[in-house]
Amino acid sequence: MMVKRVGAIAAAAMLPAVVLPMTAAPANAASAVRISAAQYDSPGSDTGSNASLNAEWVRIHNYGTTKKVLTGWTLRDASGHVYRFGTYTLRAGSTVRIHTGNGSNTAAERYWGQGWYVWNNDHDKATLKNKSGTVVSVRSW
Question: Is 107 in contact with 28 (CB distance < 8 Å)?
Answer without folding.
Answer: no
